[in-house]
Specification:
There is one protein chain. The chain is of the alpha+beta class. The protein is elongated, with a radius of gyration of 13 Å. The chain contains 2 helices and 4 strands, in the order βαβββα.
Length: 98
């Protein structure tokens, strides 16, 4: 199983490391159910309309044998929370349906 990222080039090094660290933690839990034919796609976007606060949007998809098995989206003003909630939603979807 592999992890692919979209949008990481726009992030600072510290933010990129946080994204990779949290994703890898959840990836290890998700990986137990699937073999090497699966891919976890993670797309991370940062929005800032005004002011100092940013909103982070996470879109995740688990692809197995070229089919989307699970997908989740989550947005929050904290990067860590958005990532964890988005990846946890994938886990819940897998537990309930796969």
């Amino acid at each position: 199983m592999a992890i692919t990222y979209r949008g990481l080039k726009k992030w600072t090094l510290a933010e990129e490391q946080t994204i990779r660290k949290i994703t890898t933690q959840y990836y290890d839990k998700i990986q137990e159910r699937f073999d090497e034919n699966s891919t976890l796609n993670v797309e991370v976007k940062k929005y800032s309309k005004t002011g100092k606060e940013h909103k982070y949007a996470i879109s995740t998809r688990l692809i197995y044998d070229n089919k989307i098995v699970a997908r989740a989206k989550y947005a929050d003003f904290e990067l860590n929370k958005a990532l964890r909630k988005g990846l946890k939603a994938i886990q819940r979807e897998l537990e309930s349906g796969v």
